[in-house]
Fold this protein.
Amino acid sequence: MIKKDKFIKEIGWILKEKYGFARLAEFERDIQRLQKGEPVAYVIGFVDFLGCKIDLSFRPLIPRPETEFWTEKAIEDIKKSGRKKVRCLDIFAGSGCIGVAVLKHAPVAVVDFAEKEKKFLEQIKLNARLNNLSPKRRKFIQSDIFSNISDDGGYDYIFANPPYVAETRRAKVQKSALKWEAPCAIFGGRNGLFYINKFLKQARGYLKPEGKIYMEFDSRQKNEIAGILKRRGYGNINFYKDQYGRWRYMMAEKQPLAGF
Ligand SMILES: C[S@@+](CC[C@H](N)C(=O)[O-])C[C@H]1O[C@@H](n2cnc3c(N)ncnc32)[C@H](O)[C@@H]1O
């Protein structure tokens, strides 16, 4: 392996002289950003997420492979449903990667994107445009969880990747995430369940009968989440592992409450 730091000037010179690299100063700035520890995804400015180009210039959470893994399963589920129109909500949307991928791969889907931070809503709008998604199939809502979401007959699917890292586990979080990614996208209170609790308390009221929630979480939260889901009257509850063998996401349905 070449020690790239040592040869950085020479690499720039070769790029410029041999390959006609015109944006040398910009390239050198990017290398400096990397040397300071900035995540390569922010330096490049976008990532691929299930074949969609997800721009990161407003610095939302960098989409993770674990999220890509379950989003693909959710898309398969939508396709298998055989429905002609599927109303979806991507809540805690950040970059919008989940909803954008759903819109791209499931032509029957329409998606409402909900996010608290204004700058991330701009990011989602940009990503929807970048991926040529029809304006008729998407809506953007600035909302503190469900505060600005209207019932409108409910959703068939709600996708949620809430901030779920426990404050008590701050020391275990990757240093680059702590330094470079927005804390509001990462931490979910002392035990990480602050937003999960609030979300699950209300989400049932925004689902159509037999509508489904897909939600990501930390593997340590599985048992507590199972308890919350039962208490809140969800049915057909399933927990799944990610591609690394860790409990990572759940699917649950709105079923009629007992006695009704
Ligand atoms: C873990 S990130 C998920 C981003 C994206 N969905 C993904 O999977 O990469 C959580 C997002 O929730 C947003 N958020 C935090 N608190 C919120 C709240 N009270 N209501 C709505 N969104 C919130 C954050 O700004 C952040 O963009």
About this structure: The chain is about 35% helix and 20% strand. The domain at 60-254 is CATH 3.40.50.150 (Rossmann fold).
